Amino acid sequence: MCMATGGKDSLEVEDVGSEYGLVKAVGAKRPDGWVYRFPTTNTTILYYWSASLYYLEPLNITDPATDYAMHLDCPPAFLQRSLHRFNVLVLNTGHDWNRGKLNANRWVMYVGGEPIRDRKLAQIGNAKNFTIYSVINFHNTHSSRPFSGPYHPDIFQMGIGTLEEGDKVSQDESDDSVVAGAVKGTRVRLLQITTLSQLREEGHISRYSLKASHGVQDCLHWCLPGISDTWNEILYAQLLVAD
Q1: Which of 41, 145, 191, 193 could form a disulfide with 88 if both were Cys (CB 3.0 to 4.6 A apart)?
Q2: Rg (the chain; Cα; Å)
Q3: What's the predicted TM-score (pTM) here?
């Protein structure tokens, strides 16, 4: 969003987050998302943070320490309310699917409105796969132009496949077999960004910052514009082909 807006207020960019209910709540560090409109092209870009693409519901709204039902078979409430306003939707998930995150946030897996009793489904990997298929099926039916981005690589997964002069990239299939399988036969199109991102590990801040740590590092902050620009170009190309 910083790249799209130039990172500052101007007459060419309007902050319209309030039209979508995306304003910073009292005591919150940030809103759940950001929305900017560009009047000259009548274009609106919205970014919404949904950790794992499912509907979260507090089990006891009067208890600040309540557990939350994570409905694996339901999209986030914001998406259910606002989907009809979107011409193009891009989905992504992956990094927040871990047991530590669920326990820390007091998230409890639900399917069909009930806690999951199936131990196999309750395993993190299986729950993530189930949710991805549920989300893809929902947007195959309800979204006008749905796209799904596969898992973009963490910095600690990278740096081992650097290309040398004369090397070629010959891989055609997606590294994310779950998402690739989920979109097969649907209207949802796959944005394959994983492999090309692995070739540019220097574009990720966590390994090269002053406070960089060894081992597991931040997964979100891709900082050099060239990489995320390329992601956008792939999306734009698919939109042009669709038109």
Answers
A1: 145
A2: 19
A3: 0.76
